[in-house]
């Protein structure tokens, strides 16, 4: 059957409208350069397939930048550490933590430059230490100084984003840094690790990375958030089933290198340096444990003058409802 011109135009407009509605759930996701198994799913387009949404993936250098983008509404789902998360919740940003991305171990560390005269923690006094402010690295640095009874005021703490840390390290402008890859790998080339976030966790200052979602987006598109969580957890399960076999697949390593900037030779140690919680662990964690961890982090940040107050309850900023049993 041949349509007359007006009918053809109406049909075209109807199809265009249907297409617009299909694309209305498109979202922007803020990711960082951390090394985790879900980066493979990201490269493979698994998130798009599972959610049936078009995703604009944007790379960010720090959680503070992610928070700014989420607050503005430019980003609907974002990856950030427990310290910027605590700061965001304290500011009452309308977000929910729907997934613990990783419990940080050796993937973040304090590294001192060879030749800077730093042979023990006390040698940090008077030295220049670079770290992205309000990041998990910043929280861990302050926690480490507290462990060593070093007044932060006696150390020159510089607020630099990871790319700037790499440049400053190569120029010899800084003596130490608390950071993650790829900057961590650069620093370790001619530096000495003084302490890792995993070691600090054992001393009572744990840090973690998380996925957050804007509450307005989650209310409108819970199925997308659930699909996002499932793809991530499936990737974790695939890795944890047999880490050695997973790493033996060069394609997996190449995809991590592509999105993280880490060296292929460092990938195994970086993966082993973190814990990637599975679904059952997530359901247990996304409640009182995470709420308490955020409260403890906010309390520490207030002691350091990084936030003005601590909320009486952080439970509204954590939810396990998007995790499938």
Question: Care to give the gist of this entry?
Answer:
The protein is an alpha/beta fold and 325 residues long. The chain contains 16 helices and 10 strands.
How many separate domains make up the residues? 2
Order of helices and strands: HEHHEHEHEEEHEHEHEHEHHHHHHH
Question: What portion of residues is helical?
Answer: 40-55%
Examine the secondary-structure arrangement and name the CATH architecture of the largest domain. Answer: 3-Layer(aba) Sandwich
For the sheet with most strands, the description reads: 5 strands, mixed
> Which radius of gyration do the C-alpha atoms yield?
22 Å
Describe the structure.
- There is one protein chain.
- The chain has 325 residues and is of the alpha/beta class.
- It contains 16 helices and 10 strands.
- The strands form 2 sheets. It has a 5-stranded mixed sheet, sandwiched between helices. A 5-stranded mixed sheet has the order 7-6-8-5-9, with helices on both faces.
- α5 (82-90) packs across α16.
- Residues 26-243 form the Solute-binding protein family 3/N-terminal domain.
- Residues 1-24 form the signal peptide.
- Keywords: Signal.
